[in-house]
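Hello again, I could really use a second opinion on something today. I owe you a coffee for this, so here goes:
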Amino acid sequence: MAKIALIGASGNAGACILQELSDRGHSVTAIARHPDRIATLPGVTAVHGDVADATQLATLLAGHDAVVSLVHFSASDPHALIAAVRQSGVPRYLVVGGAGSLEVAPGVRLLDSPDFPDAYRPEATKGAEFLDLLRAEPTLNWTFLSPSAMFVAGERTGVFRLGKDALLSDDQGSSISFADYAIAMVDEIERPAHSRQRFTVGY
């Protein structure tokens, strides 16, 4: 059993990761602006936290085995988040990433595609910048897990593929459910295979 801090645990993906961690017997500190929205689950403690306050966040993170961050990139300061993780001394930092920075052809990112929706471009661009910041970190043990293009509600099948920097797709398109994404994230926590790397999950 590991002690995990989950930042931004009240959203769709966060709720699934929280459920997966609880089901596997981990101890979770669920950090959110509105902790009353966190599901009551075995092993889960909900606390209020402000991602803009790096000092307070570092205090909340200290003593955990890993941190999982689900914070929207366009609504947070990546430098403050990374500083809080470093200050806390937590040995692993896992980030719920976006699909925009995945490649659809060598050197061509999804977010650079002409048909990429303008509504998603600001968040995708900030996510790509966050990944670049992590890659420049000299010592931080980070992992950035990008979902497929369609990151949606759906079944927990346990049947999916892993990749590295290229967008995964099949004849149905490019997608992954929140529940199956959660399996891939918790698998990575339990059996680290992508230290200081980005990887992706899809059908």
Notes: The first helix runs from residue 12 to 23.
